[in-house]
From TrEMBL:
Binds 1 [2Fe-2S] cluster. It holds the Pfam family 2Fe-2S_thioredx. The lineage of its organism: Bacteria, Bacillati, Actinomycetota, Actinomycetes, Pseudonocardiales. Keywords: 2Fe-2S, Iron, Iron-sulfur, Metal-binding. InterPro entries: NADP_DH_HndA-like, NuoE-like, NuoE_dom, NuoE_N, Thioredoxin-like_sf. Its cofactor is [2Fe-2S] cluster. Belongs to the complex I 24 kDa subunit family. [2Fe-2S] cluster binds at residues 84, 89, 125, 129. GO terms for molecular function: 2 iron, 2 sulfur cluster binding; metal ion binding; oxidoreductase activity. This is Formate dehydrogenase subunit gamma.
Amino acid sequence: MAVESSGASVAERVRAVIDAHRDDRGALLPILHGIQAEFGYIAAEVIPVLAAELNISRADVHGVVTFYTDFRSEPAGAATVKLCRAEACQSVGAEQVVADTEQVFGIELGQTTPDGSVTLDQVFCLGNCALGPAAQVNGRLYGRINRSRLVDILANAETRAASPTENGAGS
Ligand code: FES
């Protein structure tokens, strides 16, 4: 399999996730979330394993993976940027932030830069509506995003101390 292995074989890690959720109602979704948490994405090679283990067709698994935008079929970049496009953020310029960000990085939403440094995704409400436009960078929440602020956040993403939010109230 193309997915990265550490310690236990990839197949063993896949089966461990399956076994943890096999008896869940509608097991496929929690299993896929578990696989993505384990490997960072749903590799194509995992799909036939899931189909065989759950006794469903490969097409069914593939259909679910491609239907839900939360599931990734390729590894994400070093930084994952999720831009909010829900109504409250749209009303304060989220679409311009999306356009600017796509221009800065030369990719569209759902894509990763060729050097693997940044993945852009959309999200619909991060619970930070009062401080929109909102974004999440590597799981950390930011408010009042604009082009220059986002570039600055990404430039400093690796050196900032981890904390759950930075809403830019003073910027
Ligand atoms: S609408 Fe963007 S955070 Fe709620």
